Amino acid sequence: MSAGSYLINRAVLCTFPHVEVENHITTQNQRIELWGAGTTRTLRPIWVAEELGVPYVLRPIGARTGETQSPEYKQLNPKQKIPLLVDGSIRLSESLAICRYLIDKFPGEAVYQPITPVERAQEDEWCCYIYGEIDETSLYVMRRHRDLEHIYGSAPVAVASAAEYATRHLNVVNDLLHQREFVLEKGFGLADIILTTCLIWALAYSVEVPGQLVEYKDRIVARPAYLRAAAINFKPPEV
Ligand SMILES: N[C@@H](CCC(=O)N[C@@H](CS)C(=O)NCC(=O)O)C(=O)O
Known about the structure:
The protein has helices at residues 7-10, 40-52, 71-76, 95-105, 117-147, 149-152, 156-176, 190-204, 211-220, 224-233; strands spanning 19-20, 32-35, 56-59, 84-87, 90-93. By secondary structure, it is an alpha/beta fold.
């Protein structure tokens, strides 16, 4: 079976004319492929692509469906995680790295692109902080040791502490946003995409989110590109 032949069975009928969801792979295909749908991490690259008008093919494999475990997918991504970007011979995993690649390759006014070393570092500072402290250290710990306790073990103390830890760091971001529309003064960018997807996740997990951040999230998710991306990412597969 080729890496993509399972898609014959998993083809999603997409109502978005600019997004192709293919049921076969052609090796000459140079269009960007985004693998993975259904989670807040897979939402990130789809959202960037929607903001910047990147033409892409969505391969909507899901988390915990076994699809990331297939030998064919393991060949594409030895980490067996989603999301994954394939652009010709380039393969990239890690939602943050994929988003950054798309922003650099398809620059556009909708998403701030840091250029100078200082601009880069300032964006990295917030992306790493939000990703490291809130996504990985807090929310993913809650997911692993509560939702996925059958795999990773139940750890209620760690889950409660992770929720408190998330709130502590969300308060720091809340303070930052007192007088700013976006995480960086220069405008809407990658740090906002990482933050907003974490806020959606945190609220779904009943983590205490400071009020200003809830307002911020409501404002950001009204963006047309977000609405399209969310509809594409969370669209249930048609069988
Ligand atoms: N740090 C990675 C995390 C990727 C990750 O853990 N993805 C999950 C779904 S959100 C996954 O692929 N889990 C394995 C599986 O579902 O089989 C990123 O941000 O891309």
